[in-house]
Design a protein that fits this description.
- This protein has helices at 6-18, 21-28, 32-46, 62-85, 87-90, 102-107, 109-119, 132-140, 187-190, 203-214, 228-236, 284-295, and strands at residues 51-54, 57-60, 94-100, 123-129, 146-150, 159-174, 195-198, 221-225, 242-245, 258-262, 269-277.
- By secondary structure, the protein is α/β, with parallel strands linked by helices.
- Helix 1 (6-18) crosses helix 2 and helix 1 packs across helix 4.
């Protein structure tokens, strides 16, 4: 079995990169004869020649090319490990790129990011708000270290997916609306009224459009807006009803111009998930953030 030592591998790489034993000896501050001895021992252990020797120097054999590839990867990983483990002594630093959909940003992330930056002030957070589809694509392409998005969609095998949160959808209606006295309504009961809707490309817009199609009914959208706040303002003005996550209405408690009614359909409890690429090695800062998002309320 092949059991190389790091010194021999480092010397091997020096010879491979310089193409000359004498030059490698000078760089590594070791005698040429000592390098030759190490190379011969390495070739004997592997059972294959690593270099073609000629008057101008050396040239790697196929076995040498393969070993050089693996050795370079090994030292790269060692350097990365040394760098990242040092952060435990010096404090976590760096940056984390998070792409998240609006529901998560509005309902959960402000307090989590605030507590994380308090604990790790040297970490820069880059937060990008996007649709769930945009978050998914950014994570797949490596533009985001961490993605937070709706859980009711298909995820490719290239991603690791973790549970994050669940929210509950409610129907927001103007005060005095026929539904305002209901203790809870089903989605079908809302379809006879004009809706203030979010873009159909949003995860919520897609969910509601699909639910209407499943009922063979039409979702009558009288006004389409981009933000939850805009939808609330339209309902306050009596221009329609809307369906929103209950968490975005926390600061609307006591608002006598609107009334929030629980939506009773099973799908109205929505999962939100965290995803990361499973072939991507997260930085220490990103790993700490991932753990924070999963464990801290």
């Amino acid at each position: 079995m092949f059991h190389p030592d790091f010194t021999t591998l480092r010397i091997f790489l020096a010879v491979y990169n310089l193409g000359n034993i004498s030059k490698a000896a000078a760089r590594e501050n070791i005698a040429s004869s000592a390098i030759s001895k190490r190379l011969h021992s390495l070739e004997s252990e592997l059972g294959a020649p690593l270099f073609y020797r000629h008057s101008r120097g050396v040239e790697a054999t196929p076995a040498g090319e393969m070993l050089a590839k693996h050795a370079a990867t090994l030292f790269s990983q060692i350097n990365r490990m040394t760098s990242e483990m040092s952060t435990f002594a010096s404090g976590v630093a760096g940056q984390v790129r998070i792409h998240a959909h609006t529901s998560a940003i509005v309902q959960y992330m402000p307090s989590q990011i605030a507590s994380f930056t308090k604990a790790y002030p040297s970490v820069k957070i880059i937060l990008v708000e996007d649709s769930s589809l945009g978050v998914l694509q950014a994570t797949i392409e490596g533009l985001a270290d961490i993605g937070i998005l709706a859980g009711n969609m298909a995820f490719p095998d290239a991603l690791d997916v973790f549970d994050y949160r669940h929210d509950k959808l409610v129907v927001l209606v103007p005060a005095g609306h026929p539904l305002s006295t209901s203790g809870g309504v089903r989605f079908a009961d809302t379809l006879g009224f004009d809706h203030v809707g979010l873009a159909v490309t949003s995860s919520l817009g897609t969910l509601l459009a699909g639910a209407a199609d499943a009922l063979s009914m039409t979702l009558k959208t009288c006004i389409e807006v981009k933000t939850f706040e805009s939808a609330v303002r339209m309902v306050e003005a009596g221009l329609g009803i809307t369906i929103l996550p209950d968490g975005v209405l926390a600061d609307k408690v006591g608002n006598d111009r609107v009334c929030a009614i629980p939506l009773l359909d099973e799908w109205s409890t929505r999962p939100h998930v965290i995803c990361v690429r499973n072939d991507r090695q997260l930085t220490t800062a990103a790993l700490f953030m991932l753990d924070h998002l999963r464990s801290v309320p």
